[in-house]
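Justification of computing resources. Each target in the renewal requires a structure prediction run like the one illustrated here; the chain below, 81 residues long, is used simply to show the kind of job we budget for.
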Amino acid sequence: MASIMIRNLDDGVKAGLRKRAAGNGRSMEEEVRLILCTAVEREAVPSKGLGTAIHELFQPFGGVDLDLPARESMRDPPRFD
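Resulting structure tokens:
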């Protein structure tokens, strides 16, 4: 397991962390560990799909109108007799 030391932590943040940990029945160290794990897990899950991301990226350029061909009826499936 790895260790981490956090320097120059604001006193108010430390006090809030102590209260949060006590309210959850955990040590400050365990509370910080859970907060960090939750933050990393959230970042691993994309907030939107690839199609939405691409659409938002190109939306300022106005988009494209495509002429889509009319749908045709499906052909009969092959017979193997």
